[in-house]
Design brief:
Elements lengths: L8 H8 L3 H11 L2 H11 L18 H4 L8
Amino acid sequence: MAWEDRTAFETIQERTGWSEADVIRLMRHALQPRSFRMWRKRMKGRTTKHRAMRSPNMKFDDRLVANHRRANC
């Protein structure tokens, strides 16, 4: 979910209990240094990663998209 640009940190926290700082720490550990830098560059200032920064006109509901569970596994 953290890699996906449109999933807000708030949604990640609701689903996993991890704060934005926890997610950043995880991504720093899990990704190669160059990949982490690219991810951080994408996330910095990205309005879709923070619900409070989103425009009210944005019709995207990340809570529905962030459900990665499969129905028939």
